[in-house]
Amino acid sequence: MQDKRKEKIGLLLGFVGVICFSLTLPATSTAVPYFGATIVGLGRAVIAAFIVAIVLLVRKERLPTARQFKSLIIVSFGAVLGFPLLTSWAMIRLPVSHGAVELALLPLATAGFALFRAGERPSFKFWLSSVIGAIAVIIYASFLGLGQLHMADLALLAAVVILGLSYAEGGQLAKELGSWQVIAWAILMAAPFFIVPVISQFSLEMLHAPLTAWVSLLYLAVVSQFLAYVAWYGGMALGGIARVSQIQYLQPFLMILFATLFLNESISWFTIVVAMIVVISVIVGKNTTITKKDAKTAQINIIKE
Questions:
Q1: Where are the domains of the chain?
Q2: Where does the EamA domain start and stop, copy by copy (predicted)?
Q3: How many other C-beta atoms are found inside a 10 Å radius of the C-beta of residue 20?
Q4: pTM above 0.90?
């Protein structure tokens, strides 16, 4: 009974995280024309670093162990460096709806890495629902004529792979280090290396950027880079990485919805129908059985290797 309650809380936190992440591409698309990909992609971590440093000092959090430090490098590389920089670069060249469709493949990447990093074994039914959700968004992309790959597409696909590994690693590490501590330490580790590139790209003209651009940049720094991960990693720690990752199938359609509200992008009935199919796949997927690798079996496999 306690496990079911933890799972529900985990799914709720995961949903909150997904809502926050869904505003990331619209905010990035708004901020990049005024600040550039480097400042939007890396500057958000520099700003967030000041916040997390204060929080870590006030709470007197213990330093991560050497083993945890290695995992934090993976989280930092994906969530703090790779994904923000690649998506910022891509959003100069692509509309939000394009990026949203390709990022819909993120749950599959996360669940796949979870097999190796967290020892979770999704059932056939889980994978079937995942594939149905992925096919739905691929058909959606093809219908809109977004199937032709170019460098921006490759950047987004690389971002999916990198962030999928980061999610799986961070979700596992959150169980022992704490959800918000994972992303906080990852930001603090990476930010000092970003200061020089960010300063080199800054110009006085950026001070005259409109309020919407500044609000978008601050949102990316405070919410997308930190608070959203607190909810997301906490959700995966409680509800399981593979299962909570299913909620991400809602993300592309939430992104499109927010793009419609804030960027005046259009939305069609076809989008709504595909969104319903994806929602059904999430409901089916989250109710499937997900097992852990048997510790004894895993030990035998290691010995054989």
A1: 2-304
A2: 9-139, 151-284
A3: 20
A4: no
